[in-house]
Amino acid sequence: MLAVFTGGRFIYHIALTLVVVYMGSYFAVYWNSRKLYLSFNISNKTVTAGDSVHVEYKITNMSVIPIAYGLMTFLVSRRLGDMEFKSESAFFAPYQMITIRRNVVCRNRGFYTLGKLVVELRDPFGIFSREVVLDKAIELTVYPRVHTLEYFKMPAKEFFGRIDVPYVTHEDYTNIRRVRPYQVGDSVKKIHWKLSAKSENPFVKEYELSADSKAYMLIDGYGGGLYSEDMAVQDGLVEAGISVVKYLLNRGISVTVTASTRQHPVLTGISLESFEPMLNLFTGFMPTGDQPFKAFLQAEASKLYYGSTILAVTSVLDEGLFYTLLGLSEKQLEVILILFGREADSSYKEVEILRDSGVKTYYIEDRKAIRSVLEAQGEYQVKSY
């Protein structure tokens, strides 16, 4: 309108220039957003919780038009570790490649996808911007840390598997350890009749002390629990559970693992050949179940035989779970309770009652103490109150 009223041509030139600048800026940003290429590399696709991986990504401008401003942000799952990487800006010349390296600390176990990079492009005048998400989807598996146990006290009741025990009541009559002279009080059933007849003195057989055992590990996967959002507690439960599982499988003891999650997985193994599937189960464990651990424990225990060994792994000892454990012990089930986390140490009296009732209880305050506590004789680790 100014040009119309004044009759000048200069205003038209200004308007034309602005239109060209606007259109050129928009086209440059749009075109460059379609010409970005991402190459992504990772040092190791399988690690253990606490380890680091080196990530390298290369961004290439495949266009003849330079990129005046590119702001690059590398995204990492918050479950993997609470890490924030500083965004980097750069100018991309035509066909230029920029390499950026990052060191990622894998604090929490799980299955992850890496390779997502967000690039914000801007024109030289800062008028337009466009966000481009580049994703190469490289899989990363972070296994829980497995603590090697030298000893874990296990009762022996069922006729599955085999462990050594120091009780005469568990003598294995298929394996003779030695033959010795008869002593007052020895059972007549143990007399070696052929040798006694030849020597004219009574001899008895001593047998290997062994027994059969099978364990059922039940993991608290209730989504409404106190630790459902606490990855540190979840990983502690997982590390304690998988460490015990490896100990049992390494000694040929049959173990069945199940969790009260929505998927309700069930795996059974009797040797180290079954360890990898078990490890994958624990790696992907997430508390998504809608059933409280007390109800889950009662339902699973109702399927077991007399004398079965139950390994209950949880972080919360509430009133309902307390009475459930007492009830299972009264039904002649061998119950072992593994409590993890600081919140688990809130009821010392209840734990003492469980111990007196025959429920072996392991209290683990943090992940560094997993091995030392589990290798103890099943006694509750008394703290200062």
In summary, what is this structure?
This protein is an alpha/beta fold and 385 residues long.
Structure, described:
This protein has 385 residues and is α/β, with parallel strands linked by helices. It is 26% helix and 33% strand. The protein has helices at 2-6, 10-33, 193-199, 231-250, 275-283, 293-301, 319-330, 348-356, 370-374; strands spanning 36-42, 46-48, 52-61, 67-74, 88-92, 97-105, 110-122, 129-143, 163-164, 171-181, 203-211, 214-219, 254-259, 266-269, 309-314, 334-340, 360-364. Helix 4 (231-250) runs antiparallel to helix 5 and helix 6 (293-301) packs parallel to helix 7 (319-330). The termini are far apart.
Which features would summarize this protein structure in a list?
single chain; 385 residues; alpha/beta; six-stranded mixed β-sheet; five-stranded mixed β-sheet; elongated
How would you describe the shape? elongated
Low-confidence stretches: 157-170, 378-385
Order of helices and strands: HHEEEEEEEEEEHEEHEEHHEHEHEH
Overall mean pLDDT stands at 82
Radius of gyration: 33 Å
Characterize the largest beta sheet: strand count, sense, and whether it forms a barrel.
6 strands, mixed
Classify the helix fraction into a percent range: 25-40%
Number of helices in the DSSP assignment? 9
What structural class do the secondary elements suggest?
alpha/beta
Distance between the termini: 85 Å
Number of beta-strand segments: 17
Widest sheet: strand order?
A: 14-13-12-15-16-17
Report the portion of residues in β strands.
25-35%
